[in-house]
Structures are given as structure tokens and as C-alpha cells.
Design goal:
Helix content: 40-55%
Order of helices and strands: EHEHHEHEHHEHHH
Strand order of the largest sheet: 2-3-1-4-5
Radius of gyration: 20 Å
Oligomer: single chain
Strand content: 5-15%
Structural class: alpha/beta
Number of helices: 9
Largest sheet: 5 strands, parallel
Amino acid sequence: MSNRAHRFDSRYPHLKGCIFIVTYGRSGSTLLQTILQSIPGAHLCGENDNVILQIWNAVRKVKGAKSAWGDKGGDHPSNPWYGTKYFRPMHFADRMVDAFVDDVLRPPPTARWIGFKEIRYDEFGDDLPSVLNFMSQSFKNAKFVFNTRDADAVSRSGWWRQHDPNEVKRMVFEQDARFASYASQHRTNTFSASYEEVSTDPYSLEQLFHMLGEDFNAKIIGDILTVRLSH
């Protein structure tokens, strides 16, 4: 964890960092979310319909416009791209992320960890690494928890039963490959979990708690595992 000051610090002075559960639907991510909420001071929200997609895409467009037109007359009032050279993409990104944290996640000022889980990362396709890198740059001490589940089990679970099972399994295989690739290149701030392990063995998450610098309590996790989720 970096000791450098972060812009979040003035609003959330106790904040250690941000945790993001990266997954797909029916992977057991709500269970994992509940377990991580047991960390003192953790404020981990559920899904937000992939708001990060809109933020990342907006920043990408601002960067692209400045790169393409900022040095091609964008400083002349008669140019159709007038003003692009003065765009501030990263300042724009920071302000949108700050608004997202303050008005969507809405953590208490005493929060030690903030974040959310999202099941719609497949919407990014092969851009997923760029999105996660953007999140690492924009959020304090970002940690990514990749949550997977057996593809056959996913295809038979919940609303996925209404879809072509082969398409569901294809999505799972593709996402699992993307998760594994990113995790292999970013070992210090990623953790890979599977529903099959988490749901049966509290100790499968011991290294995750160590990565976060938090005390691991198998009994607390075991107690959570005995509660059946309503969804």
C-alpha cells in the first residue's frame, strides 16, 4: 500500500483503500461481498449497473478528442474543435470518480475500505485490462477480487437458465481467462476466488485478508456461510 496522500484522504481520513469484486452473474459474488463487509469499517456496496462503464468511456472520449484535435487548430475560435487542447482528461476523471464515490457509494466518513461488486464487466470485452488500470489510477489503493464459478453451474443458475447454455459458458470461459491474465500481471493488488472454494472453506480467503492487511477470522466467515441468501 502506498503511503502517498490521495485526494480521498480529506473526505475519508481513515480510508485504507478500495475493494472491487469483479465477476459475472450467479457467481456467488453477494456471498463474497457479505464476507468482506465483515471487515471493520468496510463499506462495500452491491451492483450499480456498471456506472464505471460510462465514466471510463467519457474519459476515453475526452482523451481521444484532445489527442486527435488538440494540436490541429483546436486553439483557434473558428476551429470546429476549438478548446480541445485545453481539455483536462484526468482532472475530469477524478471529479467524476469523486462524484461517484460521494453520491453513489456514499460511504461514511469513518470508512476504512470502500468499494462495490459488479457482474457486468463482460460489457468491456477485451478492454477490461484498460478499465481496471483506470480504476487503479482513479481510486485509492485499489484491490481487485476476481470471483469465478464453474461454467456449467452458472448456466443452470437463476436467470441464466433462460439463455443458451453454450453462450453462457462461453462468456464464463472468456471472462475467467481475462481475470486470470490480469491477475497474473498484477499479483500485488489482485486475488482470485472461486465460489466452490469460498462456499465450503473459509480458509480459502485467508490470503485475501492478508493482502488487505486485515485480521482473518475463520469463525466469522463460517457463520456467514451458514446464512442462506434470499436471492
